[in-house]
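Escalated from tier 1: guanosine-5'-triphosphate holo job.
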Amino acid sequence: LSHPRRHPRDAHRRGGALDPGSVTAVILAGGQGTRLRPLTYHRPKPIVPLLNVPFLAYQLALLRQHGIHDVVLSCSYMVEEVRAAMGDGERHGVALRYAVEVEPLGTAGGVRNAVDLVGGLVVVLNGDVLTDADLGAMLRFHADRRSAATIYLTRVPDPTAYGLVELGEGGRVRRFIEKPDPTQITTDTINAGAYLLERRLLDRIPEGRMVSVEREFFPGLLADRIPFFGWVGDHYWLDIGSPAKYRQGQLDLLAGRVATTVSPAGALTDGSFAAEGIAMDPGARVARPSVIGAGSRLGAGCRVGPCAVLGPECAVGAGAAVEGAIVWDRVVIGAHAELRDCIVASEARIGAGAHVGAGVVLEAGAEVPAQARLGA
Ligand code: GTP
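Tier 2 regenerated the structure:
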C-alpha cells in the first residue's frame, strides 16, 4: 500500500446528497487474464492497448467524467508493468494509488486489501469492462434507495456465460444465478462488474485469503438482508476479456459506439488517427476508420484499414494489406502480406506474402514464415 490517505467516513453523504468528490474508486486489476492469453503473457489485461491507449485510461476517464478522482488500483499480477504504464494518474487527471497483493486475493479480497485507502463510499470497477455507464445516475440511485450495496446490471442477448442477477421490488437484488444453463434463465440482466459499496461492508470480507465477490461476498449480503439493489443501465458495455471481444471493443470505439473522452494520439485526418513521425510512401493508402501509431512506416502500395489499428513503430511492407486487424507496437509486416481481422502482439514478424486471417492471435515476438497461411 502506498500513501494512505484519510477520508471522513461519512463525507459522501454530507448535506443529504452524494458528493462524487469524496468517493474512492477501486479498480480490480489483478487478474491473470487467462482468456486473453497469449496477449496477457507479457502485458497484463488492464493495460492492453485499445486504439493504442492502455485500457485503464478509459476507465479513469469515465471516473473523472463523473467527478471521481481518487482511484486505487487493486493489483496482483505483473504489478510493475501496470505501475509503469499508469504512474500516479496525473496524466489521466486522477490521483492513483496501488493496493498490491502478495498472493492473489480474488475479486472481493482485492477490494478488502484496499480498505485502508478508501473513504465512506467505494465504486468498484472490474478492470476489464469497457463502458460509458452513467455512474452519476448510479450514485443518485444508491442514495435515493438508501442502499448499502448497488450493483450495475446490463442486459445481454445471451446471458449463459455470465452471472445473472434477478431483481425484486424497487430493484432489490433477489437472487444470483452464476453461468446458468438455458433452463435457468429467468432474466436477461447480468452483473456488469461495477458496484457501489458502503465502506463498512468491506469489514465483512475475510482478510488474507482468496474471496470471490460473486460466490461469497454478494450471497452473504443477501443472506443477511443488507440493503442491496441492482441498477439497470442501457449504456455501452463490453467485457474485453477474450480476444474476440478485445478486438470488438476497438471496432466499437472506432465506430463511435462508446462515449469516451479518450482519443488516440495524433491528428484525426480523413476519419483516421495518425500519430507523430509516420513515414508514409505516397502510394500507401489508409482507409478510415483506422489508427496509426507514432513512428510507423507504410510502404509503397500498402493498404491499412478500414478498421485497422497499428501500434507505434510498425513497418508495413510494400503491397501489404492490414484490415480489421489489431497490431501492437514494433510489428514488421513483410511485402504483400495480408492481415485480416486478427490480433498481433508486439514485435511479431510476418513474412512476405503470408496471410493471417480471422480469429488468429499471435503472441509477442511470433514469427510467421513467408507465404504461410494462418486462420480463415
Ligand atoms: P480470466 O482469467 O480470463 O477470467 O481473467 P481474470 O483473471 O481477469 O478474471 P476475471 O475476468 O474473472 O476478473 C474480473 C476482474 O477482477 C478483472 O478486472 C481482474 O483483473 C480482477 N481480478 C481477478 N482476480 C483478481 C485478484 O485475485 N486480485 C485482484 N486485485 N483483482 C483480480
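Residues 28-36, 45, 74-76, 101, 104-107, 110, 126-128, 241 surround guanosine-5'-triphosphate (CB under 6 Å).
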